[in-house]
Amino acid sequence: MQRYGPFHRHHRRIFDKIIEKVPKEEILTAVDIGCGEGSNLLYLQGRFPKAKLFGLDISSTAIERAKHRIDASFTVLDIEKDPPSQKFDMIICSDVLEHVTDDVAAIKNIYRAADKYALVASVQGRFREFEKSIGHVRSYARGELQEKLESVGFKTMSVVEWGFPLYSPLYRNLFNFPEVEKVSHGQYGITKKILCKVLYVIFFLNRHDKGDVIFILVRKQR
User: Fold this and answer.
1) In sequence order, what are the beta bridge partners of 88?
2) Rg, C-alpha atoms of the chain
3) Domain for residue 128, yes or no?
4) Residue 117 placed within a domain
5) pLDDT tens-digit readout, 93-140
6) Which tens digits make up the pLDDT trace of 39-87?
C-alpha cells in the first residue's frame, strides 16, 4: 500500500511541493516518525541526499522491513509516550496522529525532537466507520491540527488541503464497504498495480485547496 497505493504516492508528491520551501543546505539530519517499511525515508533520501537519515516506528516488524530497503538509523519508539533522544533538522510525520490516543502528547514530543522543520500529514473531515478497523481514533476538524501544532510552539509555513472530490468524499466513502477496504491490503500483483496506477493518474484531478487530507509544514520557533 505504501509503495503502490495512489493515496500514498500523492502524499509524497505533495511533500515534494511543500518541502521546496525548505533550503536543502539546512538539512543535515532527517527523520520519519512512523517510518513503516521505509517509503518516506526513500523520499527523504532523494530530497536531501546529504542528510543522515533516521526512522522511528512503534513496530519492530516494520523497522526490520525498512532496514532491507534503505541505509538509515532505526529505533523502535512510541511517539505518544517518548520523545526521540536527539533533535533533527527535518521531521516527517505522516499518517500517525490519527492513530494515537493522546495526539497532543505526540505533537509535544515531535516539537522536542525538532531543530528546524516538521511536515505533518493527517486526515480531517467526517470520521468514517471503516477507519476504526485500520486503527484510526480521530479525523481532525478543519483547522484543528494547525492549532494544535501552533499551541506547542511551531510556526506554520504552509498548509495544503487535498483530495476533493475524488479522494474525499468519493474514494474515502467507498472504504466503508469491507470488500473494498480489504483490497488495499495484502500482496500487490500486476492487476492491483495497474488499478493503483490508474487511480493515481485520476487523483491528479483533485483540488489542492480543499479535501480531507491535510499537510502542514511548520518551523520551530527559537
Assistant:
1) 114
2) 17
3) yes
4) yes
5) 999 999 999 999 999 999 999 999 999 999 999 999 888 888 999 999
6) 999 999 999 999 999 999 999 999 999 999 999 999 999 999 999 999 9
pTM greater than 0.85 (yes/no): yes
When divided into structural domains, the chain yields a total of: 1
Angle formed by the axes of helices 6-19 and 39-47, to 10°? 30
With respect to residue 1, please indicate whether it lies within any of the assigned structural domains.
no
Give domain status of residue 86, yes or no. yes
Q: Is the dihedral of CA 57, 44, 144, 177 positive or negative?
A: negative
Scanning 68-216, the segments in alpha helix (DSSP H) are: 103-113, 144-151, 172-174, 178-183, 190-202
- Hey, what amino acid is at 210? K
Domain limits for position 139: 6-220
CA distances from 127 to 26, 60, 106, 133, 136 (A): 37, 29, 20, 12, 9
Separation CA 19–CA 198 (nearest Å): 26
The CATH code of the domain that includes 98 is: 3.40.50.150
As a whole number of angstroms, the distance between CA 222 and CA 219 comes to 9
The whole-angstrom separation of Cα 108 and Cα 31 is 16
- Range list of β-strands (E), 73-128: 73-76, 88-94, 114-123
Alpha carbon of 10 to those of 7, 18, 162, 207: distances in Å? 5, 12, 9, 12
